Amino acid sequence: MQADQTTIFYPRGLNIVWGSDPRYWRLPSDQDKTGPVDLVQVSWLEVTGSREMKPSTTYEIGFKISLTQEAFGWNGSKVYVMAKLGRRGKYSWKRASLDAFSSGTQKEIPQDSDKLKITTTSNEATIYFGMYEVWSGKWKGGLRIHHAYIREAN
Could you give the dihedral angle defined by the CA atoms of residues 67, 115, 134 and 87, in that order, rounded to the nearest 10 degrees? Predict the structure, then answer.
């Protein structure tokens, strides 16, 4: 797959709830435009973005993440990657478990076998997407977000 078929969203280009509060997140420096963001602790994980893409094209949406050695609160919690067409569209979603993640190993969610796909139309080509864990109410930390992506599907 050619690189020009993938749009990368580095953490500074994403909307991160509580992202500007150092009690909850460690952002890369202003000079580091492509560095990861580290979750210190939150009970409400919400990281979103959007982009207008080519019409009538199918895309995969996901996040490249890892866990730090200090990670906590993820056992039994499901992370949802969700996407929709347009502001008023209906969300499609995939659920991912971080239970089997080992610290430091970068992985994509959703996993390869369960990609989240969405097809733009001639009338609507703006994709809204996000990663969420807002339902458990548990405090969690140690998540490192390397980037999100919208990739043209094969």
Answer: 130
- Written as one letter, the residue type at 15 is N
**Contact predicate 49/130, CB 8 Å:** yes
CA–CA distance, 101 with 106 (Å, rounded to integer): 9
Query: What is this structure's pTM?
Result: 0.93
pLDDT in tens, 134-151: 999 999 999 999 999 999
Of 136, 71, 69, the residue nearest 98 (C-alpha): 71
DSSP type of residue 17: T
| Residues 49 and 97 sit within 8 Å (Cβ to Cβ) | no
- Helix, strand, or coil here: 43? coil
